[in-house]
Amino acid sequence: MNMKLAGSVFIDRHFHALTHKNYRYMWFGQCVSLIGTWMQNIGQSWLVLTLTGSPLKLGLVAACQFLPILLFSLFAGIIVDKFPKKNILIITQSVSMMLAFTLAALVLTDTVRYEYILVLALLLGLNNTLDMPTRQSFNIEIVGKEDLMNAIALNSMTFNLARIVGPSIGAVMMAWLGAGWCFLLNGVSFIAVLYGIIHIEAAPYVRKTRAKEGVLKEIKDGIVYIAKDPILAPTVLLVSVIGTLAFNFNILIPVFTKNVLHMSETTYGTLMSCLGVGSLTGALMMSFRSKMGPRIKVSMAASILVALCLIGNGLSGSVWTCGLLLAMTGFFNIMFSTNSNSLLQMSAKEEYRARVMSVYSLVFAGSTPIGSLLSGWIADRFGANGAFIVCGGLTGLLCLIIILKYRGTKGASSSPMQNAE
Hints:
By secondary structure, the protein is mostly helical.
């Protein structure tokens, strides 16, 4: 009984978002589904590298997957505000499930081709364009503003625990049964998240718009609103740099494993898990300090530390050194992304929140085609070491420019918890 009481107190103090029934449905479903997602991620990267042997072609697959987010995420923010988010998520998660089953069928029947993977990646990107801002802005509807940062930190914990477990299982499965089974199990895993979403009972926020207010006018209003805000503007700029240059691990780690370390898919899975261990640790730390609220200075400091870790990765030459540096990279990455995501959602007014999060999707994930092609091209020309160093150097330089420009700006040092509406 005492242990049960202690566990309840611990959850109430550090994981308070789990006290919301609707959030529990979403969270437990994601715990299962994200393991499958990471199995598919490493399976797809290794499959493309095996079929083509080209880091640039691997980068092109990632570019196709994220290009729709770059092109259409601003329009997605308008759609998300006008329909119940629960209904949108049921549709987008169902589509993701069907695409995973399709890729599994192609691989298991030996009919897969590089061109088919490109098409499926493009379709998944179109689906994620709507799914990402919906999920981001749905959190506040099911936990409220006070527990939002805690919910985001818990989401990061789930994502990164899956990043540890998923690649490990996926690497073993690829070695024993082939990549097709990674894709098949990912499709099955979506049943859990769909079950959770269906059982959520939340009053949806649907924004009413004026009859004469056009889509382009709404997009423009959202961008102007961000540009004028002393917290939103620097945060979005930092996220755009990190999203473009510092999140290309699906491109660089398999190439580094194969061409620099000369190791197999098992080592690839281990290195991805190291990244996940660091990220999980960072998510736990952010969860424990969530009641303090997000601060712009945390995002600024973390962005520089991410850049230094990337440069260190490029200078490493052993599995152990690379694994340690990837763990550190994951730690600071998750510190940056959790704090920045919370800053944007908690600082934005309700009528702008979905549009702000669609811009977040644009600069965080939509910039990936540029980063994927750039890192793939650099890895092709100068190797994975050179790509890590160049990406890290550019990240540090651009983030430092943004920090110097906005340092001391009125309102940028305050927490949105202090300025809650």
